[in-house]
Design goal:
Immunoglobulin-like; six-stranded mixed β-sheet; six-stranded antiparallel β-sheet; about 5% helix
């Protein structure tokens, strides 16, 4: 697999589930390449840009390779690093094999473009072109290649968001949700800029046939309960390269938001429900909440960042798509004939049939695997703190 940084490695490994849409007569898969997040904050030591391989189906794509063309990249300003399982075919062209080399139907496979700026680099740094090929036939080759401009921008925060595909909770991201079942939509948010973020607004759009199961404080819902805009003014994310993993008192540089959802009982299955998106935006860039609280209000204090500090240096990687995988509908077993003997009274041991499974720090397999550490401020709309290493 292409190398990842820190948590991105674990998330990338677990993002590829084991569920596939049934094969059609003609084996074909349509992979689309998308690139985002290729502008680096001026004071950041590096950045993980976002490379997505989206398989629109109808079948799995096998034997997938990714080709990076960097002949247009100004390597006196920015370099591309950290690629594994690769061969240099020619100067400026790098061919890498995915591991595993399958992008399943409906899957959004996220990889990292690790960009490192040279000292004192500024402005335009050329471009990177990425293309994908597979042993499986692709009837839409026009979207197999994407090109993105690379630049070193100004000072400011720089959020990136990763939304893993959705499966049943407690199944290590391997089992699709049965119609009528519940799951959890997760979003990982990290600040890759050079300025702290105070407050985050997240907009969630669920795929068709998927609904929110609860109303959370801080969220505004829009009919038909498939879109929500949620704000957390208390969340502070410092730049990733300033996050000290040994200091648990300081704010983290990253964390998770999550929402509990339900798949409609009449949803088709087995299938991959696409169309889900999550977007994060900073409310403010500048002082951390702790620092701001230590300053007495007055003419010398403002919550707004000074001129020249961008609220988000690169908003192109603030949005990610995800898929909800749905299992086949099950046929109920015939109900046996009831005995004429009266049924015993219900036990008083309690237990509401309508209760949702508890989700949080240790519930989903992905979260356990990456060592999710702390939940901040209760249940529901929660940011889970996760310490980060810098990109150096």
């Amino acid at each position: 697999m292409l190398s990842r940084v820190g948590l991105a490695a674990a998330v990338g490994l677990l993002a590829g589930g084991a569920f596939a849409i049934p094969a059609y007569a003609d084996a074909a898969a349509d992979i689309e390449v998308k690139i985002a997040g290729t502008t680096i904050a001026a004071g950041a030591p590096g950045k993980a840009g976002q490379l997505s391989l989206v398989n629109h189906g109808p079948n799995d794509a096998a034997g997938v390779t990714v080709t990076y063309t960097v002949t247009g990249l100004d390597t006196t300003k920015v370099t591309l690093v950290g690629l594994d399982h690769c061969d240099d075919e020619s100067a400026g062209t790098i061919v890498c094999r995915l591991d595993p080399d399958v992008v399943k139907a409906g899957q959004d496979r996220d990889l990292a473009l690790l960009l490192v700026p040279k000292a004192d680099a500024t402005g335009d740094a050329g471009e990177i072109t990425v293309s994908v090929a597979a042993d499986t036939a692709d009837p839409v080759p026009v979207n197999n290649t994407a090109t993105a401009a690379v630049a070193v921008g100004g000072e400011g925060a720089d959020l990136r968001l990763y939304a893993p595909d959705v499966y049943q909770d407690e199944t290590e991201w391997t089992e699709p949700i049965p119609p009528g079942g519940t799951g959890t939509v997760w979003a990982y948010v990290q600040n890759q800029g050079d300025t702290p973020v105070t407050g985050i607004t997240v907009t969630v759009l669920l795929p068709e046939h998927v609904w929110f199961t609860e109303t959370l404080a801080g969220c505004t819902y829009y009919a038909p309960q498939r879109r929500a805009v949620c704000s957390r003014e208390d969340v502070v994310l410092v730049p990733a390269h300033q996050d000290d993993p040994e200091d648990e008192e300081d704010p983290p540089s990253s964390g998770w938001f999550f929402w509990r959802v339900k798949v409609a009982a009449n949803a088709p299955g087995p299938t991959a429900l696409t169309g889900g998106t999550i977007t994060a935006a900073p409310m403010e860039a500048g002082l951390t909440a702790a620092r701001a609280a230590a300053i007495a209000p007055g003419d010398f204090f403002t919550a707004e960042a000074p001129l020249g500090i961008e609220i988000d240096v690169d908003p192109t990687d603030n949005t990610d798509e995800y898929t909800v995988f749905v299992a086949a509908k099950t046929t109920p077993s015939p109900t046996p004939s009831k005995s004429p003997t009266p049924s015993p009274s219900a036990s008083g041991s309690g237990g509401s049939g309508g209760s949702l499974p508890v989700t949080g720090g240790g519930s989903p397999g992905t979260v356990a695997a990456i060592g999710l550490a702390t939940l901040l401020l209760g249940s529901g709309l929660v940011v889970a703190a996760r310490r980060r290493r810098d990109l150096r």
